[in-house]
Amino acid sequence: MTTLYKLTGTLQQYTWGGKDYIPNLIGFTAQKDQLYAEWWLGAHPSSPSTIKVDDKTMPLNQFLSQNPTALGQQSRSIFGDELPYLLKILDVKQPLSIQLHPTKQQAEIGFVEENVRGIDLTDPKRTYKDKNHKPEMMIALSDFWLLHGFKPKTEILKTLRERSSLQTLANQLETQDLHHFYSDIMQANQTQLASWLLPIFEHNRLEDLSPENPDYWVLYSQKEMNISLAQLDAGLMCFYLFNIVQIKQGQGIFQDAGIPHAYLRGQNIELMACSDNVIRGGLTSKHVNIDELLKVIDCREVIPELIKAAPPDNGSFTYTTPAKDFALENVRYDDTAQINGKAESATILLVMQGCLKISDKNTALELKQGESAFICADTAYQISGRQVGYCVLAKLP
Ligand SMILES: [Zn+2]
């Protein structure tokens, strides 16, 4: 029986994507004026990858429903007959909306509640698209900037005090906890937002600011996202409340349930639980469900913890996080490397650089940069380097 298949991902052309990064990495010709935001590898029913079975192409979710043993016994006992994770490449040209994701329990309740209220799954006001949580890990493929969790209150106070238009907010925060303070800011009217933010636009120029400075991102986002000064987005205020984090190529970060975050600039690999549950918190023209946002947001003070980069030597290194839904293995090789592995659960391999041959006892696939494979659970395989580079393998921890 075949246990190793060539896999092809799907493109997502959101307006925040870039022109060249994903076409260059995956190996297709960019079309003029097209934006390529995400490349997905997985079995999410809204955009499943396809595999080649006996020269026929078939969606991975359909294959898995016909061949659930490919997921492995342990995976099926915890996650049922679905692939638990989704692997993505992102090219963040413009900032993404501020977002957070529910816990498993919140998602289960929210999904049923919205069904009961008769909100269609395709309704833009629908928040819970499925019953799953969506912890996320990302590994930077370039210098990467993001917002991640609330700063300690003392640091927020310092940031506010340093700006004359935000003094009144500092005074207010002295008497409030972060949740009440955040709630007031997210529900501020245009007059309030203008009094806080317009002086910042008046007194600064983007080219004079450094990206460690929250003012930089306020000006940058307004410009990149075309936010009208007459219709300010409350999300802009979050640059003063959240950690602004720079991640170097190879390092990563984990976003747990409830932690607000926004990708601002750069490219990354993202690995997450297979879910589409996103609660937005500003920097968006999409629907902001303020009640749900305030219910689910985790306002704890966060000191960002970076995931260490994989070592530069040949061989295997696995990034793990507190999430039980996924792990990412990084395999480096040169043209003589031979690495033996065993897929304990269903595994997706993506060649990030160079070329390799992957083989099991029945099949051998030659894969170059951007190409990928699906490996069924309980398969022993060998990776032979063909040209120096590395690949990533998404699987269960
Ligand atoms: Zn997210």
TrEMBL record:
GO biological process: carbohydrate metabolic process; GDP-mannose biosynthetic process
Alphabetized UniProt keyword annotations: Isomerase, Metal-binding, Zinc
Pfam families from the UniProt entry: PMI_typeI_cat (PF20511)
Cofactor-binding details, from the entry: Binds 1 zinc ion per subunit.
InterPro entries xrefs: Man6P_Isoase-1, Mannose-6-P_Isomerase, Pmannose_isomerase-type1_CS, PMI_typeI_cat, RmlC-like_jellyroll, RmlC_Cupin_sf
The protein's required cofactors: Zn(2+)
Domain Phosphomannose isomerase type I catalytic: 4-152
Binding site for Zn(2+): Q99, H101, E136, H261
One example GO MF annotation: mannose-6-phosphate isomerase activity
Active site: R280
Reaction(s) catalysed (UniProt annotation): D-mannose 6-phosphate = D-fructose 6-phosphate
Family statement: Belongs to the mannose-6-phosphate isomerase type 1 family.
Protein name: mannose-6-phosphate isomerase
Organism of provenance: Lonepinella koalarum
Classification lineage: Bacteria, Pseudomonadati, Pseudomonadota, Gammaproteobacteria, Pasteurellales
